[in-house]
Design brief:
The structure holds 2 protein chains of 2 kinds. By secondary structure, chain A is α/β, with parallel strands linked by helices. Chain A has 3 domains: 29-96, no CATH class; 102-326 and 348-409, TIM Barrel (Alpha-Beta Barrel), CATH 3.20.20.70; 417-489, no CATH class. Helix content of chain A is 43%, strand content 14%. In chain A, the strands form 4 sheets. A 9-stranded mixed β-sheet of chain A has the order 12-10-9-8-7-6-14-15-16, sandwiched between helices. The model of chain A has no long low-confidence stretch (mean pLDDT 92). Chain B has 2 domains: 5-98; 108-375, TIM Barrel, CATH 3.20.20.70. Chain B is 21% helix and 18% strand. Chain B has 9 helices and 17 strands. Chain B has helices spanning 134-142, 165-177, 195-202, 220-227, 232-245, 264-274, 291-294, 296-299, 307-319, and strands at residues 5-6, 10-12, 21-26, 39-42, 56-59, 73-75, 88-91, 97-101, 108-111, 152-156, 182-186, 209-214, 249-255, 280-284, 324-327, 351-352, 369-370. Chain B has an 8-stranded mixed β-sheet with strand order 1-8-7-3-4-5-6-2. A 7-stranded parallel β-sheet of chain B has the order 9-10-11-12-13-14-15, covered by helices on one side. In chain B, strands 16-17 form a two-stranded antiparallel ribbon. Chain B is globular. The chains are: A alpha/beta, B alpha/beta.
């Protein structure tokens, strides 16, 4: 066994590694009793034993060992052999943060606060026929479209919110047509989505959505017993109307054109399988197992305190396990929250999900134009405002300029508090590349935008999910293969 | 295997050319006079005279003129009998003929230099440190003679970027003469560490150009060992980044052998994470030629023994939406899970089948072997039975280059 004379052995090329290695920026956090997660600044991670971690930190990893190569390949260390790791890390870091220079991509238009439902957890709706008081005016709509196109984002999504936005369908049409006309010059990648309970869906609306490529998003909390109790509609046929609406859209516009979101309430907790089954029966390929948010009517009715992070997590874990089982039996369906996190863990990309961003997505990922012309930094910000807390109100259309709102102390302070890498406890957490800051949540729960993460439900919930997902991938190759697909699919 | 170069050509009262000339082969003895200067007439056997005006007239050993020593033609080596209309040959003052281009080949590779700045353990075209700048001149002569319907032309070496600006002359000539022909350049990518070189290539705006660049490991020292050049990994990675920054399409090429197979899954993860924007990744079997023969004991591994690593790498790339292609692997050796990624990739002039392939149902879809594989090939070659569902996944596509 030998190379021909003019060639050098592998040891010749590895000799340069003998001079020792330097650590690149990294963080570590315990995964469980025995294992640690090490991550680098762009979220590449490795799970190691405690003594292996010790060896790494104390420069004792044997040169040329498999572990040495794993650390080197993932850019945890570098040695005299190569310095291209720095170029690659810089490139990956830029990629992860690319969206920051391309703000703001999601523009939410609250076209009306009126609604035909009376959901217990709803943050923002009114039961009224008074169009003038609770619908968006012509001037406000025009100013909102104008502000939307001030964003440098190459891709712009306009989402119609309510209340029930289909109660103001004419307003939706006028915004769509103003934006389309404007976009002839702007040439952005422009998308529309209507967030609706679908009770008012009609052929006329479907035809319009078809012609203008509009997506629909609805709420489906589970089987009728759950859905109708969470989302009561006078007439008691909310579930049926929603299902019928979803099917009509699927048939008329295509399966990809309608998606559904579920909200977890205390009543949902024992029924995660039944909820998921409901989504499978409708042919959905994703489900978002969301926690209940601490805003709006959800807080005032005391619901959010009724179950703590741990109870929601056991609901989540049970649901995830069932979803993985469905995948193993040949039905591809992903859990959206896991998919967002996995994308951060396993790919160079960074999905633009507002609640898990650092810097926070407030104002720079999403922005809300309220029916009355008020501009908020996020959907949660306007929910707080409905409860009387104007902390994240950026200004008013027609009164304040784009510059005044985007450079307001309100937004800049929130963004500053919204950099997780600089927050106490977060700055040294191995999971920070996957996490976010969520100043609105911490303001709402702790009256402090940065928040004490040791007391934060946001932190407890997300840490548990990060650990759970990594442990699943470490402990089961079958789960890992499925989760890897989700990472690139979402 | 076809012979692309032949020296046993006998002049039949023929004036030796003063310099290397390129000719397009034709069998049309009545070619209009205006087209004859750059044409090599392959004289039809039943033709009774030697027509005038052709750049050169070639006669076959079975021609009545083969024994006419004053006829002014060139009696060609019997190994060139496959020549046909539209092929392009190069004729040297020594009367050596090299077939530069075959119209019916799926891919024609142009050797542009034998010089190289790496010394890969398994190089199939061992480099020579010679002044071979005449090769480019000759190719610039030959390219206008290629059929404009040519699907793809390869540029290979040596290391083509050592030509500097001359490489761009070649690409420019290919673009203007063959605007609808794909160009695939094989380079180690190291010189593209200079952004200006990548920018210069991109500035040619070739509509269908790809550069194939080898990357053998995620660990710099292991890549450097395979290419026997310290610092090559960093240069190659920077080269890939620069090319992609300029919008040039890049194929990453990985030859799988005993020194590379173990970290194949790690390399796939590295590519998915750091170089996800490359256009495709080719995972290639070893060719038993050139330096491979000299280093065989250090390089050989039966492909059957690295299927787990290969499948893992393919799945990682596929999940990451990086196009993965398996080249130079016989279908019977591949894990059935990844057969659909296999591409018939061996150039037709060097592909063969073994006695074990007799009666195999998949022969049509299988790339077979490099003719050099007779030296050593897997002990696990066996004929495959086509089940109705066996090819349900099909092959990625039945196209070829190398």
């Amino acid at each position: 066994m030998a190379l021909a004379k003019r060639f050098s052995a592998v040891e010749t090329f590895r000799a340069v590694e003998m001079a020792g290695y330097r650590l690149l920026p990294l963080r570590f956090t315990a995964l469980d009793q025995e294992r640690y997660v090490i991550s680098n600044m762009v979220g590449e991670y490795l799970v190691v034993k405690r003594d292996q971690l010790n060896d790494l930190i104390h420069h004792r990893v044997p040169q040329g060992s498999d572990l040495y190569d794993e650390f080197k390949s993932r850019h945890f260390i570098r040695d005299a052999d190569s310095d291209v790791a720095l170029d690659l890390l810089a490139l990956k870091y830029r990629t992860k943060l690319a969206r920051v220079s391309q703000f703001t991509s999601l523009h939410m238009f609250v076209v009306t606060l009126r609604c035909d439902y009376t959901c217990a957890y709803c943050q923002v709706s009114r039961q009224t026929e008074d169009r003038s008081a609770y619908d968006m005016s012509d001037d406000t709509a025009a100013a909102a479209v104008e502000m939307t196109f001030r964003s440098p984002a190459p891709a712009i999504k306009i989402e119609f919110q309510g209340g029930e936005p289909l109660l103001a369908f004419d307003r939706i049409k006028s915004v769509v047509e103003m934006a389309e006309a404007r976009n002839v010059q702007e040439k952005r990648n422009l998308q529309f989505v209507i967030a609706s309970n679908l009770s008012l869906i009609s052929d006329e609306i479907l035809d319009y959505c078809d012609r203008h490529g509009i997506y629909l998003s609805t709420s489906l909390d589970g089987p009728s017993s759950l859905h109708d109790r969470n989302r009561p509609k006078p007439g008691k046929n909310g579930y049926e109307l929603t299902i019928r609406g979803i099917k009509r859209i699927q048939d008329r516009l295509g399966r990809d054109r309608v998606s559904a979101l579920m909200t977890t309430t205390e009543r949902s907790l024992p029924y995660v399988k039944e909820i998921i089954d409901e989504y499978v029966r409708l042919g959905f390929r994703s489900i978002f197992l969301r926690p209940l948010s601490p805003y709006g009517f959800a807080v005032t009715t005391g619901q959010v305190d009724k179950y703590d992070a741990e109870r929601w997590l056991s609901f989540y874990r049970e649901g995830l396990s069932y979803i993985l089982e469905l995948n193993k039996h040949g039905y591809s369906i992903r859990e959206t929250y896991a998919a967002i996190i996995l994308r951060k863990m396993l790919t160079p990309q960074n999905p633009g999900y507002v609640d898990l961003q650092s810097p926070t997505g407030l104002g720079i990922s999403a922005i809300v134009y309220n029916y009355d012309g008020a501009v908020y930094a996020s959907d949660e910000s306007r929910m707080l405002a409905e409860m009387g807390d104007q902390s994240f109100r950026l200004g008013r259309l027609g009164v304040n300029s784009y510059e005044e709102m985007m450079l307001s102390t309100t937004l800049l302070d929130a963004l500053e508090a919204g950099v997780a890498e600089g927050a106490p406890l977060c700055s040294e957490c191995a999971f920070v590349p996957y996490c976010g800051a969520d100043p609105v949540y911490h303001h709402a729960t702790q009256r402090d935008m940065m928040g004490n993460k040791a007391l934060s439900g946001y932190c407890a919930r997300n840490m548990a999910i990060f650990r759970h997902l990594i442990a699943l991938m470490e402990d089961s190759l079958a789960d890992k293969a499925i989760l890897l697909r989700w990472a690139f699919d979402c | 295997m076809l012979t692309l170069s032949a020296k046993q050509n006998i002049p039949l009262g023929l004036m030796r050319p003063e310099r290397v000339r390129s000719f397009r082969v034709t069998t049309d003895a009545e070619l209009p006079a205006v087209l004859r200067e750059n044409a090599a007439l392959l004289l039809p056997v039943d033709w009774a005279s030697i027509p005038k005006g052709f750049g050169v007239v070639l006669v076959r050993p079975d021609s009545p003129f083969a024994s006419d020593h004053q006829c002014g033609a060139l009696l060609i080596d019997p190994s060139l009998l496959y020549l046909g209309d539209g092929d392009v040959i190069r004729l040297t003052p020594d009367l050596h003929i090299r077939v530069v281009y075959r119209r019916n080949a799926s891919t024609n590779s142009l050797l542009v230099t034998e010089r190289c700045n790496s010394l890969c353990l398994m190089c199939s075209q061992p480099p020579r440190d010679v002044d071979d700048s005449h090769l480019v001149d000759e190719l610039l002569d030959a390219i206008p003679l290629f059929d404009p319907g040519t699907r793809e032309v390869g540029i290979t070496g040596g290391e083509p970027t050592l030509l500097g600006a001359r490489l761009f002359d070649l690409v420019r000539s290919l673009k203007s003469n063959l605007p609808h022909t794909g160009v695939h350049i094989l380079s180690n990518g190291r010189n593209f560490k200079q952004l200006s070189l990548a920018q210069a290539l991109a500035a040619l705006h070739h509509p269908d150009l790809m550069i194939g660049i080898p990357l053998y490991s995620d660990i710099a020292s292991l890549h450097d060992y395979v290419v026997q050049a310290d610092g090559a990994f960093d240069e190659t990675v920077r080269g890939i980044l620069n090319l992609k920054r300029c919008g040039v399409r890049v194929e990453v090429r990985v030859v799988v052998h005993a020194a590379t197979y173990a970290r194949l899954p790690a390399l796939a993860r590295f590519i998915a994470r750091n170089l996800q924007f490359v256009d495709q990744v080719a995972l290639m079997g070893l060719e038993m030629t050139g330096f491979t023969k000299a280093n065989l004991s250090e390089l050989w591994i039966d492909p059957v023994d690295y299927q787990a690593e290969l499948a893992d790498a393919v799945h990682t790339l596929h999940a990451a939406r990086v196009k993965a292609l398996i080249y130079n692997h016989q279908l019977c050796l591949l894990d059935p899970e990844i057969r659909r990624f296999a591409v018939r990739s061996i150039s037709d002039w060097k592909n063969e089948y073994m006695p074990e392939c007799d009666g195999c149902d998949l022969r049509q879809e299988c790339g077979g072997f490099f003719s050099s594989a007779k030296l050593k090939y897997s002990a696990h070659i066996k004929p495959q039975r086509r089940r109705d569902d066996a090819l349900a996944g099909g092959l990625a596509s039945i196209e070829s280059f190398t």
